[in-house]
């Protein structure tokens, strides 16, 4: 079934950025900027008990991922943030 405590942040055409959850067709949120969409995605994951947020580039490739506690955080220090 996959990780239901996951959100993906990706471009929403010419309408800013969208937040999507696994198994859902429509976005769980939209925002005018990537930063706002990322904050919304992290709040959704935090409210669900922790998990992963994946940020995609305009070509759809994952360019970054963040763990939202109490998810399974890597012991490797995140140097991107």
| Low-confidence blocks of residues | none
Distance between the termini: 30 Å
Helix content: 10-25%
Order of helices and strands: EEEHEE
Strand content is 25-35%
Structural domains: how many: 1
Could you walk me through the main structural features you see in this protein, from its secondary elements to its overall organization?
- The structure is a single chain.
- With 81 residues, the protein is of the alpha+beta class.
- It has one domain.
- It is built from one helix and five strands.
- The chain has one helix at 34-47; strands at 6-11, 17-20, 29-31, 51-56, 62-68.
- A five-stranded mixed beta sheet has the order 3-2-1-4-5, with helices on one face.
- The radius of gyration is 12 Å and the shape is globular.
- The N and C termini lie far apart (30 Å).
Task: Write the topology of this structure.
Blueprint: E1 6-11, E2 17-20, E3 29-31, H1 34-47, E4 51-56, E5 62-68
Parallel strand pairs: 1-4
Antiparallel strand pairs: 1-2, 2-3, 4-5
Quickly list its features.
81 residues, alpha+beta, 5-stranded mixed sheet, 1 helix, 17% helix, globular
Short description:
This protein is an alpha+beta fold and 81 residues long. It is built from 1 helix and 5 strands.
